[in-house]
Structures are given as C-alpha cells and as structure tokens.
Amino acid sequence: MTLQVVEISALGIVCAADSAISFKEKGKTKEQKSWPKLLRNDRLKAVIGYYGHAAIDHHRMPDWLESFIRHNQASNIREFAENLRDKLNAEWVRPTQSDGTGFHLAG
C-alpha cells in the first residue's frame, strides 16, 4: 500500500510519501525495498507520485519517470499529464495479476 499526502497553499506545495515497494509471489509478499515514490519536475514546479505496479517494461518506475521528466518538453502541467498519458498508452502493458499503476500530479 502506498500513502501520499499533498498540501497546496499560497506558500507552495508540500508532498510526502512512504518509500516501501513490495514484491509479491503467488499473492504473498516476497521482498520489500525502499524506492522513491515522489519525483520533482523543477521546470514546471511540479511533483509526481506513483502507486501500484512499479515498473514499465522491466524499468523501475522511478527510473522510467526520471527519464520521462528529463526528456519531456511540456510547457505546463496539463500538457505534461497528456504527454504522460500518451507515453504510458504506447509503452505500458498491464501485467497479468497486477492491480495497475496510478499517478498523482501536483503543481
């Protein structure tokens, strides 16, 4: 389970998330690691968090998202979200027996 908290105010954005990623085998937790679940996009003054299945095409989600953020040329958050949607639809295949993946974007 992932916990993400976001507070947006006139002073800025505060985000927090746990870092536990659980790997399961036959429905039971096999291993647990610590991965970043929040990534900054300084150019857009935004933060993106993810939850659920934490890999895309055998790439760890934080690595995949960092690459996406680095190469994406969106000029605003809406365009960033649309570009993310399009890239995910082109590259992500939902693994069998997976709950899927979700994102929280704040900026």
A few lines on this structure:
The protein is α+β, with helices and mostly antiparallel strands. 24% of the residues lie in helices and 43% in strands.
The general outline is: globular
- Classify the beta-strand content into a percent band: 35-45%
Structural class: alpha+beta
Average of pLDDT? 84
Helix content, binned percent: 10-25%
Q: What composes the largest sheet?
A: 3 strands, antiparallel
Output the helix-strand order: EEEEEEEEHHE
- From the alpha carbons, calculate the radius of gyration and give it in angstroms: 14 Å
Number of strands: 9
Distance between the amino and carboxyl termini: 24 Å
Strand sequence of the main sheet, in spatial order?
5-6-9
Put simply, the count of helices is 2
Low-confidence segments: none
Count the domains: 1
How do the helices and strands line up, and which of them pair or pack?
Elements: E1 4-9, E2 12-17, E3 20-25, E4 28-34, E5 38-41, E6 46-52, E7 55-56, E8 59-60, H1 61-71, H2 77-91, E9 101-106
What does it look like?
This protein is an alpha+beta fold. The protein has one domain (about 5-105). Helix content is about 25%, strand content about 45%. It is built from two helices and nine strands. The strands form four sheets. It has a three-stranded antiparallel sheet with strand order 5-6-9, with helices on one face. The chain has a two-stranded antiparallel ribbon with strand order 1-2. Strands 3-4 form a two-stranded antiparallel sheet. A hairpin with a 4-residue loop joins strand 5 and strand 6 (about 45-50). It is globular and about 45 Å long.
